[in-house]
Design goal:
Elements (H helix, E strand, L loop, with lengths): L1 H20 L3 E7 L6 E3 L2 E3 L2 H4 L8 E5 L7 H7 L1 H8 L5 E5 L16 H17 L3 E5 L7 E2 L2 E2 L6 H12 L2 E3 L1 H12 L1 H4 L17 H17 L11
Helix pairs in contact: 5-6
């Protein structure tokens, strides 16, 4: 009888451990044109959010809800942010890649001043933390913008605002811009073109092609391992 009891306990423990090991995590990706899958004419441009799931085991469910034209302002005004919050549950992870459209003064619907952008990010993080959801901040994807063989950064003070917020709110920062600056400068202007989409006769581009998007997704995943973002880093392939 005692042996049967011990066996039953052992099987129960193994079952619990197995269930815990298989517990899944939702990773929501919120972002803009470089992250979203964007319909352009008769084709679809795949952002880096599309390829992120390729780097994780089945325990991580990546939900790319990024939208072309998204900014902190449009998310708040449109109600999309409240809709996202209603979908989240304790233990989820939300990665935010914003700043590209916030910085665009020509887009009056999306533009936010640096101060407003910073305040919006902090509010969004507070919303997530209140729901026991883990936030991750990303600086914007670097554009292919070379002048005299030198890469020029195009987002002004917005990436630094992301860095400040991450430090102030003590959340994980994945500094995509700085990672890409090193990579693109090593490649040089001509070779770096292979990772971007270019309009005819254009010399600059902000939109990654599929190869570029896959590479950025890989860079981001590597940073999750480096920073040991729980529980995601344990499930990186």
């Amino acid at each position: 009888m005692m042996k049967k009891f011990c066996l039953a306990i052992s099987l129960l423990v193994l079952s619990i451990c197995s269930a815990y090991a298989q517990k899944s995590t939702n990773l929501f990706v919120i972002g803009d044109d470089m992250v979203a899958n964007t319909e352009v004419m008769d084709s679809t441009i795949l952002g880096w959010g599309h390829f992120l799931s390729n780097n994780f085991a089945s325990q991580v469910h990546v939900q790319n809800i990024a939208k072309k034209g998204a900014s902190t302002r449009t998310l708040m005004v449109s109600g999309d942010w409240q809709t996202t919050l209603s979908q989240l549950k304790r233990g989820d992870v939300v990665m935010m890649h914003l700043g590209f459209n916030d910085a665009n003064q020509k887009d009056t619907a999306a533009y936010s001043s640096v101060e407003a952008f910073e305040n919006n990010l902090m509010l969004m993080i507070q919303n997530l933390q209140k729901q026991k959801v883990t936030p991750i901040l990303c600086t914007p994807v670097a554009q292919h913008y070379f002048v005299d063989s030198t890469l020029v950064l195009r987002y002004g003070a917005y990436p630094e605002a992301v860095r400040r917020v991450a430090k102030r709110m003590e959340v994980t920062l994945i500094d995509v811009e700085n990672l890409m600056v090193e990579w693109l400068n090593n490649l040089g202007a001509l070779q770096a073109r292979e990772y971007y989409l270019f309009a005819p006769e254009a010399t600059h581009s902000f939109q990654l092609n599929e190869e570029g998007a896959q590479y950025v997704a890989k860079l981001i995943t590597e940073q999750m391992v480096k920073h040991q973002v729980k529980p995601l880093y344990k499930h990186v392939k």
